[in-house]
Write a structure and sequence with these properties.
Pfam families: GP7. InterPro entries: GP7-like. Helix content is 21%, strand content 31%. The longest helix has 26 residues. With 338 residues, it is an alpha+beta fold. A seven-stranded mixed β-sheet has the order 4-9-5-10-13-12-11. Strands 1, 2, 3, 6, 7 and 8 form a six-stranded mixed β-sheet that branches. It has one domain.
């Protein structure tokens, strides 16, 4: 049963949102959710699922000689199936409540709708990193479950052993690398459907009327070639704050694990889809990297190793030409990867 004041707005909520004038709300709960800005988006090739064919073996070739035949060979392939999930939010505001503020009714609905959009963005960003279909079949498979063991050559151990660990990610976005997938016949991004006035029931089964808006977003992740991504895990946050973790050294290790190392806009000649590599970390690690890069670990120079770049009109820090994105969805409380 939905509870007034918990699931639905009441008059007190409206007054808190700005009083008689319905003032602008400070979005103090807004977080940085940058992954979707960089994402390469493709449509599923199997309804709500996307099947990728991955080459696991090259065809055999042989040295030739005059008057001799050519040995036959074939490549080996395997198929990987990725699924999508969807997040929904339903905003319902009592029509009698809107009637009390007729001049601000549209703004009230917009204000509440923006909260749903932010909540969905945070939910989706978190799922991109940590969602696991083996734990929740409604969700899609995120990146952390795919890079969850040190036996993976592209998982680098940061040395942390406690429960206050964080990760840094290198993700290459591209058709042949990592993509956000959306179901067939459904547009990418958040879909808003204004349901208008609806008759609903209260907890006692009595009817009343609300204005409803339905927000929906479908998405999933497909990793076609795992070699183009890397995860630096087990970075002890307390050690980072104490300044005893060499983040540049960890970034260097991850960099040399990447297939086809390149920056955001560099291309590899002859490759159909070069992709673009972006580094993701949370604010704690970004600040530590900035401090480490400004003065050098020995303090003997003032060479700034991070450089600003402009990407789609936005200035971001970059490391070896790859942009660094801060995301609040990457936690400081990850368990140790073994």
């Amino acid at each position: 049963m939905a509870i007034l004041g918990t699931s639905y707005w009441n008059l007190i909520d409206v007054l808190k949102a700005g009083g008689d004038g319905i003032g602008d709300v400070v979005e103090a709960l807004t977080q940085l959710t940058p992954f979707m800005k960089d994402a390469n988006v493709i449509t599923c090739n199997k309804g709500t699922k996307h099947v990728s064919s991955i080459r696991t073996g090259l065809p055999q070739v042989s040295w030739g000689a005059l008057y001799q035949g050519i040995a036959q060979g074939k490549g080996d392939y395997t198929q990987v199936e990725d699924t999508t999930g969807f997040v929904e939010g339903l905003s319902a505001v009592d029509t009698r409540l809107l009637a009390l503020k007729p001049a601000q009714a549209a703004k009230l609905r917009l204000m509440e709708g923006q909260g749903f959009l932010e909540s969905m963005a945070q939910t989706m960003e978190s799922a991109i990193w940590y969602s696991n279909v083996q734990l929740n079949g409604k969700q899609f498979h995120g990146l952390a479950p795919r890079y969850s063991a040190l036996a993976n050559g592209n998982v680098i151990n940061g040395g942390g052993t406690g429960s206050d660990n964080a990760s840094i990610w290198f993700v290459t976005h591209g058709d042949m690398q990592t993509s956000v997938i959306t179901p067939e016949n459904i547009a990418a991004g958040v879909q808003r459907d204004d349901k208008g006035e609806q008759r609903v029931m209260d907890g006692a089964g009595n009817p009343y009327y609300v204005k409803e808006e339905l927000f929906t977003q479908h998405a999933g992740i497909a990793v076609k070639d795992w070699r183009y991504n890397a995860r630096i895990c087990n970075i002890d946050v307390s050690d980072v704050i104490a300044g005893t973790v060499n983040i540049n050294a960890l970034l260097r290790k991850a960099y040399y694990r990447l297939q086809g190392r390149r920056s955001y806009q560099m291309e590899k000649p002859g490759q159909v889809s070069p992709g673009r590599t972006v580094i993701y970390m949370n604010k704690t690690l970004a600040e530590a990297l900035d401090a480490e890069g400004t003065n050098g670990r020995s303090g003997a120079d003032n060479f700034i190793r991070l450089s600003p770049r402009e990407i789609q009109g936005e200035e971001v820090q970059s490391w070896r030409g790859m942009p660094i994105r801060e995301t609040d969805a990457l936690l400081n409380t990850e368990t140790r990867v073994s």
